[in-house]
Amino acid sequence: MKAARTLAALVAATALAGCGASSDASDEKGMDLKAAAARADDITLTTLNAVKPGVKWSFSVSSGGLAHGAKAGPDATGTVTRRAAVRTIVSEERGGALAAMVEAGWKKQGYTITYRSSHGHPEVEAATKDGFQLSFGTGSGTQFTLIVKTPEARLSEVPAPTAKGTGSVDPAPGPNSANIRDAYWSNDGASTLTPS
Length: 196
Prior knowledge:
- The protein is built from 3 helices and 10 strands.
- It is an alpha+beta fold.
- The protein has a single domain, classed as TBP-like, CATH 3.30.2030.
- Strands 3, 4, 5, 6, 7, 8, 9 and 10 form an 8-stranded antiparallel β-sheet that branches.
- A hairpin with a 7-residue loop joins strand 8 and strand 9.
């Protein structure tokens, strides 16, 4: 019985360790950039699709390459940064509520909140247990952007996001390119509409 329980525990641990990455994207040397990018895309989808009422969004400019200070070679590592732009116009009155909703969703996922703005432009940052760094806010503009940065991973080809957003597919031309009005999020707060 003891041996059976030990075997079951090992099987369960192995299954948990493999969650979120395909078997052909990583090996005994750890995650590669392809798997890291896929995980970042999954975080993006989970984060933005959890917003209610839903917002329109699309993947924006992504980047990837050698990690800072790393040297090229067979053991070189790199990082990937995925960006998603919220195309829904979010009023100043609703911005804080949107950031708070994203923060609540991250907490439910077990992420650690590392920063939240106490005044000015809404912004919240978090870290996952597997080393991904997340930020959601408006920066110095008015358009909300979600940024997911991966931990260092083995260099490999980095594919474009395979998932599609719900807004315009064109890369955001600037920090204030939100252009889709919404009955709730674009409202100044005077409306009696409530999130569904």
